[in-house]
Every structure is written in C-alpha cells, then in structure tokens.
Amino acid sequence: MMFIKNDKVALRVAEPNDAVIIFSWENDMQVWRDSETRVPYSLRQIEQFLLNNNNLYSEKQLRLMIEDTQNGQPIGCIDIYDFDDFNSRAGLGILIDEKYRGQGFAKKAIELLLDYCFNTLLLNQVYALALATNINSIKLFESLGFKRCGERKQWYKTADGFIDQIEFQYINRK
After folding, report:
1. Structure confidence by residue, pLDDT tens digits, 31-53
2. Is the pTM of this model over 0.70?
3. Which CATH number fits domain 4-125: 1.10.260.100, 3.40.190.10, 3.90.700.10, 3.40.630.30?
4. Cα(56)–Cα(48) distance, rounded to whole angstroms?
5. Cβ(77)–Cβ(97) below 8 Å
6. Alpha carbons 115 and 160: distance in angstroms, whole number
C-alpha cells in the first residue's frame, strides 16, 4: 500500500517483511560512515524495530520505504528521526541502494517527505546532516533548498583521521 507518491517514487511505511532488505542495507559497511554506524544489526533487531518502534509520535522516528514507481521495487528508505512535535522540527535521513544512486530517486523521495512534513505534520523545519566527504549528499541537500547552518569540526573518527559534519536546515516559508 502506497503512502504518498510522485512520478518517480512512492513512500510507504516499512513493514516486517521489509526486514531482509533493510538488514542488507544496514549491514553494508560501505554506508556505515555516513550513517555513523559501527556495529551490525541482527535481522531480529530490525524485525523488532519494525514491529514495535516505527512510530513517529511515541518513538520520535518513522522509517519509510522508497519504491520505484515503475516496478514497485524497494530501492531505499527514508527516515524521520528526532521528531519534536513541540518545537515543530525533525531530522531526515535517507539511504538509496547502491545500484539506484545517481538517478534522481533521492531527490524525489525527499521532495515527497518535505511535503508530508510541512503540509501534514505541520513542521516548521527539517534538518539533515552530511559528512564533509559526502559530496553527493551535500549537493543533493543544497539542490533541494537546504541551507548550511553549521559545521561540526572533527566530528567523525576514521582510521585516517577525523571528518567534519555539515548541518543543513530547511525552514518552511509558508
């Protein structure tokens, strides 16, 4: 069942039967740096999250699956996290499967999510974080109208040294 969609992607709530594909994405060490993950997740942990913790109002987060509207394939996920109803803001995180990157799916998914956040949840702002080395994410957020609002120096430790993290805000102007 689709939640919202446009010409390229559809967003829907992640279901327990999505656990296997989410398991593969969450345990891909190539994306750990950008998601600030250091340890793998078990399939059971992901299933439990999808069964019990995927609630925006009680758990302050919501994971949505991104599907290609052409074939209905799950191609990634997008999260609302750090949801703060009182202060009218939330964080946004996105992951697109490697074979679907660079095709405009992330941009279309974020556009849908922003519309939902501003017109349904009535949020004032959405923020996002990107490591300074993640040029594609930085360009993506800037192309969508997110503004740089800060830089956390030496934020993420790697074997080669520390990486800065860029903070972005998108404030609803309506």
Report:
1. 655 556 666 778 788 788 777 76
2. yes
3. 3.40.630.30
4. 16
5. no
6. 39
**The pair of three-digit structure tokens given for residue 8, joined into one six-digit string:** 């390229």
Helices and strands of the chain, counted as H and E runs: 6, 8
Q: Which residue has the tokens 């993290």?
A: 165
Q: What is the CA radius of gyration of the chain?
A: 16
**Measuring CA to CA, which residue among 98, 95, 96, 93 is closest to residue 83?**
93
* Unique residue bearing structure tokens 């019990």: 52
Query: Is there a contact between 77 and 14 (Cβ–Cβ < 8 Å)?
Result: yes
pLDDT in tens, 111-140: 999 999 999 999 999 999 999 999 999 999
Tell me, what amino acid is at 46? I
